[in-house]
Amino acid sequence: MTEPAYLTATRGGYDAIAESCAGPFRAALDDAPLDRALLAAFAEMVRRDHPDPLTVEVGSGHGGTAAYLATHGLSVSGIDLSTAMVEFARRTYPEVGFRVGEMHNLDIDDVSLAGLVSWYSLIHVPEHDRPAVLAEFERVLRPGGYVLLAFQVGDDTLHFDEAFGHEVSLDFHRLDPDAVVATLEAAGFGLVARLVRAPEARHAAAPVPQGFLIGRKPAEQASAASGAG
To answer: Keywords assigned by UniProt (predicted)?
Structure first.
């Protein structure tokens, strides 16, 4: 099967800029107290409801977000499309496992995860493919499992032919929170929390509102399954 062109372009783009964009990308959480608080709260909910808090970050990039979640008690690993990003993350955070993978077709068993994080990775998926991606997230999460999505808010797509001194072809889709909630619910999740952070002029990466959603796979499925035996 031929790979969608946007996946090839996204992989190639991040392979090209993995080293040169490391500084600003890795520092993104350092001066983002609301982001850190949300990640910590997500980790606490996962730990509260799941004795084995197995969690995966899809689109883990340089590895900083997965490493931060690991410091909050989650058994976390990262998956990224870009081999160069995975290699960087492995060198930088050897205590966290990282591997190459693709969010449309996760190499993860059904109903095996307590948590899944997509921290600014859904923004590279065109609208027509987002339902399939969220359905894949639902597949790998246990009943009662949590998903956390982060994205830029808007209705436009930014395209870059050059980034950090390298030739690339990268699309960044800004998303409408209402539309993402509808897609999340259509995939079988209930909405737990929704936050839109106002633009921050001093942050080069956040000149527009930033959206965050936490969804939960219904826990009732667990009760039904246990009663069936």
So the answer is: Methyltransferase, Transferase
Predicted model pTM: 0.92
List pLDDT tens digits, range 145-204: 999 999 999 999 989 888 788 888 889 999 999 999 999 999 999 999 999 999 887 665
Number of domains in the chain: 1
CATH number at residue 198: 3.40.50.150
